[in-house]
Design goal:
This protein is α+β, with helices and mostly antiparallel strands. It has 3 helices and 5 strands; from the N terminus they run βαβββαβα. It binds iron/sulfur cluster and FE3-S4 cluster (F3S). Residues 2, 19-20, 22, 24, 34, 39-45 line the site of iron/sulfur cluster (SF4). Keywords: 3Fe-4S, 4Fe-4S, Electron transport, Iron, Iron-sulfur, Metal-binding, Repeat, Transport.
Length: 104
C-alpha cells in the first residue's frame, strides 16, 4: 500500500484524489489518508503530490504512518473529487514539525 505522511498536513492539495482509480482517500480537517486495504498499489498518486507526501510502505520507518492511515481511513469520510486546497497551502510546504503543531 501507499501511505500519506506529514508533508500533507495543512497543504492538502488533493491532486492525489483526482488520479486514484479506486477512490481510497479519506479526508480529515488538515490531511488525507489512504485506506491500506483498498489501495491497489498502482503508484500513480505518488508523483502527483506537490508536497511529496505519498510514499510506498516499502520505504523504511513508515510503520507509524501506516498505522495512522489505517486508523483514520476508518474514521474519516471518503473523498472522491478534488476540492480547492487551503488558501495558505503553499505557506506550509516544506514546514517542519507539522504533525506536532497541527494534527488533532
Ligand atoms: Fe490510489 Fe494507486 Fe495511490 Fe493506492 S497507489 S492510493 S490505489 S492512486
Ligand atoms: Fe495531501 Fe499531496 Fe494529496 S498534499 S491531499 S497527499 S496531493
Amino acid at each position: 500500500t501507499y501511505v500519506v505522511t506529514d508533508n500533507c498536513i495543512k497543504c492538502k492539495y488533493m491532486d492525489c484524489v483526482e488520479v486514484c482509480p479506486v477512490d481510497c482517500f479519506y479526508e480529515g480537517e488538515n490531511m488525507l489518508v489512504i485506506h491500506p486495504d483498498e489501495c491497489i498499489d498502482c503508484g500513480v498518486c505518488e508523483p502527483e503530490c506537490p508536497a511529496e507526501a505519498i510514499k510506498p510502505d516499502t520505504e523504511p520507518d513508515l510503520e507509524s504512518w501506516l498505522g495512522l492511515n489505517a486508523e483514520y481511513a476508518d474514521k474519516w469520510p471518503n473523498i472522491t473529487a478534488k476540492k480547492d486546497p487551503p488558501a495558505d497551502a503553499d505557506e506550509h510546504l516544506n514546514e517542519q514539525g507539522k504533525m506536532e503543531k497541527y494534527f488533532s
